[in-house]
Amino acid sequence: MISGAGAVTAASSAYARLETSIAAWALVEEAIRAALVIGSRARRDHPADDWADLDVLVLTAGAHRFIDDADWIAGIGDPWITFVEPSPDGRAFERRVLFAGGADVDFAFMPVAEAEANLQRDPSAAANVLGRGVRVLADKDGYVVRLLDDLRPAAENAAPNAHAFDEAVADFWYHAVWTAKHLRRGELWWAKSGCDGRLKERLRQVLEWQASAEGRDPWFRGRFLEEWADPATVTELPRAFARYDEGEVWDALAVTMDLFGDVARRSASALGLTYVPGPEQRARELVGELRSGR
Predict the structure, then answer these.
(1) Considering only CA atoms, which of 72, 95, 99, 73 is closest in space to residue 85?
(2) What's the DSSP call for residue 272?
(3) What is the C-alpha separation between 145 and 164, in angstroms, rounded?
(4) pLDDT tens digits, residue range 176-209?
């Protein structure tokens, strides 16, 4: 087993070899129009460590073949494990591959026309994916150069409008009640998933809005949250997560509700929006009744 600096060197060498193989594969595959490294192995800010995987965005004339069929992977390296999962935005699929020796590559396939449409539809999402750093492995048509030229900073679209903010607030308080109902029913798995899943995602969202409004730089989907989120909220987060225990989930739900209410109010103020208190007041009443058994 390699440890310390030797492990980092070995991992870096393994990924460098894979990048060379991916570039060569992309150049001979007619359906592949471009391939680029994104994520930590393309970043200078918070760069990859020896546990980081390799994220490769592949622009194609048609993605289905590479998702449905895994035979092409042998042209890059020796796959030990491979499977398909939905992309983070739920709009496509990715193929994850664990190569011999443990190098992990996430191949995201996207038709060129879809990449262009996504950039127009949601520039902030594209900036979150590409704006932190990109390294081009193949670009047969010069498309990546044009794509990056059109990229706008993520912060330009970070602030929600009043409707999006109100929707996020309503979503949180609705699911706070939903979580309490499942606790009362004895469905601990679902209740814990609600408290430590859905509600935490809404809390993360308002923390991102607050950070942007106050001049800090929030990372995509909570990466490095401890560095950019409101310090007082980060201090309280350990109490907001529960073990698989009914009493602890009730307590964590209460803490999560307090944190969300506080952050959402301060986010609204920083964004020049109005926090409507009605959903919170009614949800707190119902959660209190459910917890007391009334």
Answers:
(1) 95
(2) T
(3) 32
(4) 999 999 999 999 999 999 999 999 999 999 999 9
Total H helices, total E strands in the chain = 12, 6
Residues in a beta bridge with 55: 38, 106
Buried b (16+ CB within 10 A) or exposed e, 256-290: bbebbbbbbbbbbebbebebeeebbeebbeebeeb
Residue 221: predicted pLDDT: 84
SS3 32: strand
User: What values do phi and psi take at 190, rounded to 5?
Assistant: -65, -40
Contacts (Cβ under 8 Å, ≥6 apart) of 243: none
Domain boundaries, the chain: 4-156, 159-292
Cβ atoms of residues 124 and 77 within 8 Å = no
Q: Are 195 and 179 in contact (CB under 8 A)?
A: yes
pLDDT < 70: residue spans in the chain: 1-10, 63, 118-129, 150-158, 294
Q: What is the DSSP string of 75-144?
A: GTS-EEEEEEEE-TTSSSEEEEEEETTS-EEEEEEEEHHHHHHHHHH-HHHHHHHHTT--EEEEETTSHH
One-letter amino acid identity for 208?
A: E
pTM greater than 0.90 (yes/no): no
Architecture of domain 4-156: 2-Layer Sandwich (3.30)
CATH 1.10.3720.10 fits 159-292, yes or no: no
CA dihedral 230, 232, 234, 235 (to 10 degrees): 160
